[in-house]
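Issue: ligand-bound run for 1-deoxymannojirimycin - logging full I/O for the record.

Environment: standard queue, default settings, no custom constraints.

Inputs:
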Amino acid sequence: MSKTLRHAWLVALMLAPAFGGAAEAPKAAPEAKPVAASALQPVDDAEAARMAERVKAEFLHAWNGYRQYAWGHDALKPLSKAPQDWYGQSLLMTPVDALDTMILMGLADEAARTRELIATQLSFDKDLDVKHFEIVIRLLGGLLSGHQLTGDERLLKLAEDLGTRMLPAFDSPTGLPYVNVNLRTGKAQGNDSNPAETGTLLLEYGTLSKLTGNPVFYEKAKRALVETYERRSKLGLVGERFDVTSGKWTHTSSHIGARIDSYYEYLWKCWRLFGDEECLAMWKPSIAAANRHYAEEVDGALWYGQVDMHTGKHTGHEYGALDAFYPGLLAYSGDIERARRLQRSSFEMWNLHGIEPEAYDYRERKVTYAGYPLRPEIVESAWYLYRLTGDPQYRAMGKKLFEDFVRHCRTEAGYAALKDVTTKQQADDMESFVMAETFKYFYLLFAPPETLDPAQVVLNTEAHPLRRTR
Ligand code: DMJ
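Outputs:
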C-alpha cells in the first residue's frame, strides 16, 4: 500500500467509531515469550502438505465471505459483513488480486468464475481519480499475471486499456508520476510523492510493453525509476518524500520502510525480470548504501532503522511489518547471511505479542504503532529464505506465523485486520493484498516446489508472478 493510503488506513483505524460497533472488545493479551525458530516443531513434507491444505481452506473461507457479502465490489468488511469500494464504484480489487492465488492453489472452478467476472464486468471507463501506484501494483499486476497464467486475451486487453488510461500520470516536468490520475479524463494531480510510488512501476508497465509490443509503457516507468535514483544523496540514499514537479526532496528521512520499501525491491527485480543492465547498475550502489547506513546491532541482533539521507545520522530506531520484506529481498539477491539475521529479528518482533505490529522501537523494545493490517512481508521473506536455503526452520516459522494469524485475525466472514496487536482488537478491514499476497506466500511455503519456481518468474510487490517475455 502506498504510504498515503497506508496512512489513511491507519488514521481510519484509529478514528473510526464504526469499528467499535462491530469489532471485538479489547481484551488483555498476555505477552508471548520469545520463540526461536530452531526451537519450533520441524515441519516435514507430510506436515507441509497438510499445512498447504489448511492454508487453501482458510483462503477459501475468506473468499467465500467476499462472495457472500461483497461480490462484485472492491473488498469485504469482515466484521460488518458488508462490501466496500475504494472510490465509490468498484474496480474489483479483491477478485483481480485473488485470481492468480486461486490458480496457483489449483482452485479451478473459483478461478474460472473469477476470471469471467473480471473479463465481463471490469471497466476502466470511469470518472475516478485513482491512486496510480496502487492501481498499478494490484490491478495492472493482477491482470497481467492472470493473462500469463491463463492465456486469456481479455485480461491483456483490460491491462492495456488501464495502462493507456494511466499514462498521463507521467506527464510531470520531471517524468516522476503524479500521485493520482483520472481514468476517464487522464487528468493527473498530486505532487507529494515518494520513491516507492515512483519506483515501483516498471515490472508491470514493462511487462505490458513486452506483451503489447508498445515500448511507451516501459520507457515512462523506467524514466520514473531512473529519475528517482538520480535524486539520491552523496551517500547513495533516497529520502522519504519529494515534489514531482520540482523534483526536490521534502522529507529526507531514509530507511527501508513505507514510502521507500519497494523502490529497492524493483531495482533488483527489474534486473531479474528484464535483464536490464541499468537496473543492476542502480541496484548495486543502492543496496550497498542501504546496508551500510540503516543497519544497527542491538544486543547481537540486526535491525534496520531510519537515517538522514544526507548525513547518514540515525534519526530513528523503528522496524515494522513493512520492513519485514527486506530479508526476502536480501536472500533473493544473494545476501543469505544478512537475510537470515534480519529474519530472526522480524520473527522476534512478531513473537512479542504473537503477531507483528506496524512499528516497533527495537532499542526501547516497545511497540510504537500497534496496528496489523494483515501484512504479508514476513511470510514472503520466510518463503524466499526457505526456497533459497532449504532450511526447515523457515517452514516451522511459517507454521507458527500461520497459526497466530488464524487465531487472531479469523472472523465468521473472513479475515480482519487488527487495530491493536497488544489487545488483538479486530478492525473491519480486509485488504485485497491478503488474497494476493498473505495467503499466497503461506501457501507457497508449504506447497510442492513446482507450484511456483522463483527462477522462472518474478513476483511483483503485490505477489503477482510475471514471466519473462520476448
Ligand atoms: C502491498 O500492497 C504491497 O506489498 C506494497 O508494496 C506494500 N505492502 C502492501 C502489503 O503490506
